[in-house]
Write a structure and sequence with these properties.
heterodimer; A: mainly alpha; 12 helices; B: 324 residues; Rossmann fold; Alpha-Beta Plaits; 2 domains; elongated
Chain lengths: 267, 324
């Protein structure tokens, strides 16, 4: 390790190594991936086949039904699936931190942040996989849109930005958790937030206090922008508000996680 | 090439909150030596290893590894050390080979170099047959061997072994001891912690006894033993009827244990004393005779006032895992 080797080059190289490690862990321990696919899958089926008819009538008036509700709920469930991956990331980070191997990494000349970026890269790829699978299932169930090229781009940017932001946040949660159990509880709030937004019902049907909260929490612009992107209508301000939220959440997660990772244990 | 000590600790203090763990440690490990840090649970052994291996920062004092300060020059230190924590530091979901490959990648060996080094280590640590099985299926001894193999990947000049044989069966312990000796034969300096006196006795050139955050004694095993006044001689008698006769023959210095049928007396290490004892017992039915030289257990007891293996109360804030 000569002094001439660039620090950034080594950081990238170590991050690639750690990303490969995370992906291999995901493959070796498929239970977590199965659960992150299973959760939005069950919600999609539940909301379309059980609640769909009634909800559709509520949203679309007399002409509304199951198909209308399918089109309304899919963007919400897709965003929720990204939150689901984030919760599983928090668990897998907490599991990793409880093993002695992290101490080993810290005593090696390894770029420190690479352990965390490895997990993030793994989680973002996992998010994309889950997103595509759930979208494919929605199409099988009859989801059709006049999606445009710019809509696809908007959606792709949103998926990447939201999953990066939520993943860094979940890294912070997982790394700060005192135990694997805590790590699995804290991020639950992320799964609840789509319900307290425009994911499953329009926010103007909510009681006033809740409607106000729904308007100003990140999941609403995320789901609205996703709805617009997939629907082929321009996302407009929702897109910029969404990206601003992603930046704030992602940065806070990154800075916090790095600080917790580098601090002395127990102090 | 520097001739500085492999490890040099001066005035090291470390506290967790207001609970002092290390209270002024001075210690030196010459290159190529094996230094054992001996102490009961909660004595601060792991904390010392964690400070010296750059995992945690000292509150005060300096720690230099091969001439580099562990705080100011942590990266240079990390390039030259290997650390095997108390809890196995490997990825259970990975096979032995994959664990070693991961290490090879992280120390930036090329693909070819890495593969060769991994094969070499699998061979040397007797893991060839298990190389492609997940580490989760390994026995305790195999996990330890893989652990140490991972530590050796970058050919470190100083390795830390934190309680390397805790929880291993006697055969696996021997195997780990052999591995440690092999590394030493290649010039690696070893700093190990243990709560087993015989482990320190077998492996270490120098032993430092840590108790309550302080080094209460240090030196070679022989030097430590010589600090304890003498051993004792013990005779076991054939029947209780012989006890009065033996007691009379040996005088006031003897201690009689009528249940165990033994009589013991202090021993100054002179052969003449053994000869006189046996001649005085002429006619008494002696079944066994034993000479006890002081062992490290006696040393530990004498130095700290409590037995080495006795558990001192562990502060709840003391980390029980290597790192959290």
């Amino acid at each position: 390790m000569s002094a001439t080797t660039s620090t950034l080059g080594l950081a990238v190289r170590d991050s690639v190594t750690m990303s490969r490690r995370s992906l291999r862990r995901l493959i070796r321990y498929p239970a977590l991936t199965v659960s992150v696919i299973g959760m939005p899958l069950v919600f999609l089926l539940l909301f379309v086949f059980v609640f769909g008819e009634t909800m559709g009538a509520g949203i679309g008036g007399t002409g509304g039904g199951r198909t209308e509700y399918l089109h309304y709920v899919v963007p919400g469930i897709l965003v929720m699936s990204l939150a689901g991956v984030a919760t599983s990331t928090a668990i897998s980070i907490a599991m990793d931190m409880s093993e002695g191997i992290i101490a080993r990494f810290k005593t090696m000349p390894v770029a420190r942040v690479s352990v965390l970026t490895g997990h993030v890269v793994g989680a973002v790829l996992q998010s994309m996989l889950v997103f595509v699978l759930i979208l494919a299932l929605a199409v099988v169930l009859g989801y059709r849109t006049d999606v445009t090229a710019s809509g696809v781009l908007t959606t792709a940017v949103l998926v990447l930005a939201i999953s990066l932001a939520l993943t860094w946040l979940s890294v912070l949660m997982g790394i700060s958790a005192k135990s694997v159990e805590t790590a699995s509880n804290t991020p639950m709030i992320l799964l609840l937030l789509p319900f307290l937004g425009s994911g499953f019902v329009p926010t103007d049907t909510l009681p006033r206090g809740l409607a106000w909260f729904a308007e100003y929490q990140p999941f609403t612009p995320w789901m609205e922008a996703m709805r617009a992107g997939l629907g082929g209508t321009g996302a407009g301000t929702d897109l910029w508000v969404s990206l601003a939220w992603c930046l704030v959440i992602g940065l806070a997660g990154y800075v916090g996680a790095k600080r917790v990772y580098n601090r002395d244990p127990t102090t | 090439m520097t001739h500085s000590p492999a490890l040099e600790i001066t005035g090291l203090h470390k506290a967790y909150g207001d609970h002092p763990v290390l209270r002024g440690i001075d210690l030196e490990a010459p290159p190529g030596s094996v230094v054992a840090l001996l102490g009961p649970n909660g004595a601060g052994k792991t904390t010392m290893v964690n400070v010296a291996s750059t995992l945690i920062r000292p509150d005060s004092g300096t720690v230099c590894v091969l001439g580099h300060d562990v705080v100011r020059d942590a990266e240079r230190v990390r390039e030259q050390i290997g650390m095997t924590g108390q809890y196995s530091a490997l990825d259970s979901l990975f096979t032995g080979r994959e664990n070693l490959r991961l290490m090879a990648d992280l120390v930036h060996l090329s693909k070819v170099e890495g593969r060769a080094r991994v094969d070499e280590l699998l061979e040397r640590f007797d893991l060839v047959d298990a190389a492609d099985r997940p580490a989760a299926t390994y026995s305790g001894g195999m996990r330890r061997r893989l652990d140490v193999a991972m530590t050796m990947i970058a050919r470190p000049r100083l390795i830390f072994l934190d309680e390397p044989t805790t929880g291993l069966d006697p055969r696996s312990r021997r195997a780990v001891w052999d591995l440690v000796r092999e590394q030493v034969a290649e010039g690696v300096t070893v700093f190990l912690t243990t709560q087993y006196l015989d482990e320190a006795d077998h492996l270490a050139d120098r032993i430092a006894v840590l108790d309550g955050g302080r080094i209460v004694a240090s030196g070679t095993s022989e030097q430590l033993k010589s600090q304890v006044p003498g051993g004792h001689l013990e005779v076991r008698l054939g029947s209780p009827d012989d006890l009065p006769a033996a007691a009379t023959a040996l005088g006031d210095a003897a201690t009689v244990d009528s249940d165990a049928l033994t009589v013991t007396m202090p021993y100054d290490g002179e052969v003449a004393q053994v000869r006189s004892l046996l001649s005085r017992l002429e006619g008494v039915d002696v079944t066994t005779f034993a000479v006890h030289t002081p062992d490290l257990d006696d040393v530990f007891l004498a130095l700290t006032g409590h037995a080495a293996t006795a558990e001192t109360p562990i502060d709840p804030r003391e980390p029980q895992e290597a790192i959290r």
